[in-house]
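RETRY 2/3 - previous attempt timed out on the joint model. Re-submitting the same 325-residue input unchanged.
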Amino acid sequence: MAETADKLIIGGREFTSRLMVGTGKYASFEQTARALEISGAEIITVAVRRVNLDRSKESLLDYIDPKKYTLLPNTAGCYTADDAVRTCRLAREAGMSDFVKLEVLGDEKTLFPDNEELLKAAKILVAEGFTVLPYCSDDVIVCKKLEDLGCAAVMPLGAPIGSGLGIRNPYNIRIILENVSIPVIVDAGVGSASDAAIAMELGCAGVLMNTAIAGAQDPIAMAEAMKLAVIAGRLSFKAGRIPRKLYANASSPLDGLIG
Amino acid sequence: MRIVLNGDCMETADGATVETLLQQLGISRERVAVELNADIVPKAGYEKQLLSDDDKIEIVQFVGGG
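RETRY 2/3 succeeded.
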């Protein structure tokens, strides 16, 4: 019951699943399609690249029905606002949708966001009518600026992209949650199902991941684990956890003990 | 005439349009976006958009990514 009523709304669109999944790094397109299916994700990220002129090679969309998912094209690999904006315009033309995952990277080693270029790109894209979901630092000031610019969500990193280090600074995520009113989606850093559950228990609107599933020894099983973790974490958040206490508090009644 | 497609030179017939180029390459127009000299060509304009010598064309599609 709680799940069906608890919709995620981004850019005026309603979603049931709070797990967003990337489509990179799988062993095959068959495996990608199967993992996406099992994950229950409704929003999936894709990259924008030059077409392969060797038409004998298959492409992702031969395996994934774009009508079944909301495609969220990313600007991965862009290091300037100009490149990111150009990529988003191409993505909109290719996909006929204005949803974009905006990332402007600052450095190849960390893949941390260049927040200055990110803000510049977000401003242009919002003005051009895009529904912008920016990948950003876990920095409340940047998140508030992105919200003020009109982004549809903010997607702070839990840890570096592909690192699997988990939610390194849950306090920063909490501060962001308390200070922005658009959906907060943890993007990057999740390694295991418990990481996803932690993000959801903090109160995040969703979690976006790629490597944690695609790089697992059994990506299909991990896709299911992530689906359940996101649901469990969300329910746990909504249920309201008990306060942490230093000392014990017995669960069984003290009255009626023998002797 | 000679155009630069996705960074590589290629020959195409005089009078070629974006539409005929896609046909020549066997690419379905539905799943791609085309840039001509850094400007996007809307899908509705593929048939009318003539190509010229030395035009730089980018054709992109969605691939797996995170």
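The radius of gyration of chain B is 11 Å. Closing ticket.
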